[in-house]
Amino acid sequence: MKTITLTIDEKTVEATEGEMLLWVALDNDIYIPNLCALKARPLPDANCRLCWVDIEGRSAPVTACNEPVYNGMVVKTGTERVVRLQQTALELILSTHPVDCGRCGKNKRCELQKIARHLRTKLKQKRLRDISKRLPIDSSHSLFSYDPNKCVLCGRCIWVCKEEQKVGTLHFAYRGFAMVVTAFGGAPLGEADCTMCGRCVEVCPVGSLIFKNAEK
Amino acid sequence: MRQSSSTTDEKEIRETVAIILQNFSPLKENLIPILQSVQSAVGYIPQPAMKQVASFLAVPAGEVFGVATFYNQFRLIPPGKHPVKVCLGTACHVKGGNIILEEWKRRLGIDEGGVTQDREFSLDRVACVGCCALAPVVLVEEEVFGTMSPSAVEGILLRIRIEKERRSGCGGNEE
Amino acid sequence: MNRGTKTAVLQNFAAIKGRALEAWQRSREGEDPCILIGTATCGLAAGALEVFKAFEEAAAAKNVRVHVIPVGCMGHCYAEPLVVIRKPDFVPVLYGKVTPTMAGTLVKQCLVENNFVPELVLAALEENEFLPSIADFPRFARESRLILRNAGMINPEEIMDYIACGGYDGFVRAMQMAPEEVIDVVRRSGLRGLGGAGYPTGKKWEICRNGSAALKYVICNADEGDPGSFSDRALIESNPHLLLEGILIAAYAVGAQSGYFYVRNEYPLAVKRMRTAIRQAREIGLLGGEILGSDVCFDLTVFEGSGAFVCGEETALIRSIEGERGMPRHRPPYPATVGLKGAPTLIDNVKTMAHVPGIVTGGADEFASIGTGSSKGTAVFAVAGKINNAGLVEVAMGTPLKEVVFEICGGIPRGKSKAKAFKAIQIGGPSGGCIPEQFLDTPIDFDSLQEPGAMMGSGGMVVLDEDDCMVEVARYFLDFTQKESCGKCTFCRVGTRQLLTILEDITKGVGRSEDIDLLVELSEDIKGGALCGLGKTAPNPVLTTIKYFRHEYEAHIARKCCPAMMCRDLIAYYIVPEKCERSCDVCVGSCPTEAIYTAKHRIKAIDQEKCVKCAACMEVCPPEYDAIVKFSPADTVPPAPPRIEEKE
């Protein structure tokens, strides 16, 4: 594997050629907002649309999770148009996500809080309509509870359940705005086949899947 | 009674699906053609059928559920005896297709995607059925009704009811 | 392929073609007259099957020997069912809106008594001394029919008809060339993808050809999902072998052995006809192993799409063939390098494939001589909406929009009592935009259409008149894209939902003053931020309607007024007492909610509480009274006269 150098925000960093830019940046303590990326996942899903960067020679911002690095690459993570896309993506997610951090078990460890802090923006947004779905919370599982309203549909839980643990209990169902993470037939997770590994909860970037002992 | 009739249904469905599966090799790429065959034989895709298909293809049942809920074609509940489909393609829309849809909703007392309690009618919207020159268009079962007006809805319903009474009259024993 | 094999291919095909020409002569140019009946979906919906039977029965009753032949769609949806009658001693004559009764008349008059019944004739297909010919109609004279040439003339379920008209000549010629030469012809022709994006076809073929994999696929994308476009459907139903031939040439050129024809399951007739075409081609050795005695192998499978607009996107289409949820993935890699099951996969739209045989037969230069600098050949549009002659139109690239709307399709239909004004053309479906009057001179080609903010799209053209509210049109398309979003990425899943919510508020009269700017900002971000083409183009209907019809948005928000009187929350119906013909009760009967009552002097009036604003009364009110009018804002409607008790 060839080692190359690239510049991210004027900082020169070394990396292995072909590695994805998002991980190179994060490994070098340069934060780029992200929700859906998982390092172990060979093909990035690129669904959260948060990890925007500007790369010299490209006409528009691109997502860092699926940009392989090359020698001499010049990257900027905080240009105006990058921040605008990140800001809007975050606002869109928050327009469906009930913001009640004080009572959320993920408070202070939530990726959305981290992204909002990074973008210097408030979690309570006013620009867009509140279109949260108000679905019932599923507390049937003995180990964790599942609040589909807080879910950002990043798909991390589904990937670890199927590809890492080879269990395949969690899936996407339905389509578009109605899309949800669920078990077969929409059954309560407590009734689904589950090996209790808890990996889905560990990778959830927000307070959607949360261990019962962590709830407030 | 109810219980036993639904178990027979389930058994019947299981057998139907088993026959369908004989025509396919257990490859994931056959999932959609299999579900299409199940739907055309059973009228919808019951959950037990999804499980049966999943075990045949050796994939998690949730994955089959995910695919079945993704595509417009697949129904998760049984359709009515007379499925009503209101075209809402662009041409039908600009000629008032949504008003026709509302009239059906009002007359049948169900929302789109719904089935009447007596299981006689189900109501769905479809994107362009390809008869744009006849807009607005409604399909009842396979019959095309073109240049629909709200007041024509009642006429169609009446016709179906008369048809039904005539048929039950034939099979009846009043005389 | 060595020279011996090439010669064998030619000989084998010549034998087939000989049989085809013989059969054609018998049925079309023989002593017995022939009757062609359009039996594509549009024709069938208009009653073509009954007409077909009526012709057969009438001919049998009169003891007339005649070939009654089902054909595809000529594109004249407004005049379906269409029938062509050809007698050995005269030019073929076209009849429109034929009914079973007319069929009986035509058999008797035309076939037995030798009278063409000029009052029923639409036109003669060739020039003659007695009847006007199609050359006199702009509809026919201004069209350039390349891929629709045989549509409506040949029996789509009979391969020999296609072969007799020069079908598979292109494929046989391609087999005489090296695959690279075929690609070169396509490249030089300037053909671009007609699915919407306009990527150069030859270039795509070349990339796929250069893929080193042993296994490659060709997919023909017939997942026509635009609401308001039916051009692919009509083409498949009318001439499936043309597509099959295009696919065969593509497969030979890129070196694919296997392929899929991906067609919507909502098009049952197209599915059936394509399956028949495949079976027939296989039977005579044009498909399968050792095609025409060569070492070329290719087989095609029909895959029925399950109803997801997003599967028109190529990576989503591939996922669905693989048995997954049709969610697009990031590109690159493009399918031409990594496609179906990881193999290089060539995906071309129906209309692109349909051009290929003609390009190979006629040569690259001939094709490139039609059209404009960067857009070659023809464009096929399904024209519908507020238009006199709805149907399928094929014009040379570069033809101005105006010509299509006002000359070829006959302009905007009159209203009940007055002419209606043109407002806009919605082109390109949910990914396209609305083009207002000042851009009607825009030539139809890939680049020019982008200037006013629209795009070629996949061939839908919906004409809108003064009664169409542009906010409502934008809402309609966003409702569609929002429902059809796969849900994968944030910008499309949530962004289109936000756009829809805002548009709904505006059409209901509860929009906020900052909403127009918000729609524009959000639209720009969705264009830049969404993962796939569906999401990136979804805001186009919003952006173009705001750009050209901002005043309509402002009227909705500021005054709760819908200038086109379409948004039902903002309008009210009213019966003008002075105009109402008191004893005519036709409006009362038309009302689905019994909202119309009788007032003093038997004048009719509308109970606003009960009225659902369906416009049924307005449509039935006889034009000589024309008593029903709309008001917007709704609260400007004059008070209705009081109800009188029935028993008084």
CATH architectural arrangement of the largest domain in chain A? 2-Layer Sandwich
The largest beta-sheet of chain A arranges its strands as: 2-1-5-3-4
Beta fraction of chain A: 15-25%
End-to-end Cα distance of chain C: 96 Å
Largest interface, C-beta closer than 8 angstroms, per-chain residues? B-C, 47 and 58 residues
Distance N terminus to C terminus of chain A? 47 Å
Low-confidence stretches of chain C: none
The coarse overall form of chain A would be globular
Estimated helix fraction of chain C: 25-40%
Number of helices of chain A: 5
Number of strands of chain C: 18
CATH fold name of the largest domain in chain A, please?
Alpha-Beta Plaits
Number of domains of chain A: 2
Estimated helix fraction of chain A: 10-25%
Written as H for each helix and E for each strand, in order along the chain, the element string of chain A is: EEHEEEHHEHEEHE
Specify the CATH architecture of the largest domain in chain C: 3-Layer(aba) Sandwich
Shape of chain C: globular
- Largest beta-sheet characterization of chain C: 5 strands, mixed
The first-level CATH class of the largest domain in chain A is given as Alpha Beta
What is the average of the pLDDT values of chain A?
95
Based on the model shown, name its key terms.
B: Glutaredoxin; four-stranded mixed β-sheet; 4 strands; disordered C terminus; C: 648 residues; alpha/beta; Glutaredoxin; Ubiquitin-like (UB roll); five-stranded mixed β-sheet; globular
Textual characterization of the structure:
Chain A is of the alpha+beta class and 216 residues long. Chain A has helices at residues 21-27, 80-94, 111-118, 156-164, 199-203, and strands spanning 3-8, 11-16, 52-55, 62-63, 74-76, 144-146, 171-173, 180-182, 209-211. Chain A folds into 2 domains: 3-82, Ubiquitin-like (UB roll), CATH 3.10.20; 95-214, 2-Layer Sandwich (Alpha-Beta Plaits), CATH 3.30.70.20. Chain A is 20% helix and 15% strand. Chain A has a 5-stranded mixed sheet, sandwiched between helices. The longest helix of chain A is centred in the middle third of the chain and has 15 residues, at 80-94. Chain A is globular, with a radius of gyration of 18 Å. Chain B folds into 2 domains: 2-68, no CATH class; 82-171, Glutaredoxin (3-Layer(aba) Sandwich). Chain B has 7 helices and 4 strands, in the order ααααβααβββα. The relative contact order of chain B is 0.10. By secondary structure, chain C is α/β, with parallel strands linked by helices. Helix content of chain C is 39%, strand content 14%. In chain C, strands 2-1-3-4-5 form a 5-stranded mixed sheet, covered by helices on one side. Chain C has a 5-stranded mixed sheet with strand order 11-10-14-12-13. In chain C, strands 8-7-6-9 form a 4-stranded parallel sheet, with helices on both faces. In chain C, strand 10 and strand 11 (391-396) form a beta hairpin. In chain C, helix 18 packs antiparallel against helix 19 (515-529). Chain C starts with a helix and ends in a 17-residue tail after the last strand. Classes of the chains: A alpha+beta (216), B alpha+beta (175), C alpha/beta (648). At the B-C interface, helix 2, helix 5, helix 6 and helix 7 of B face helix 2, strand 10, strand 14 and helix 17 of C.
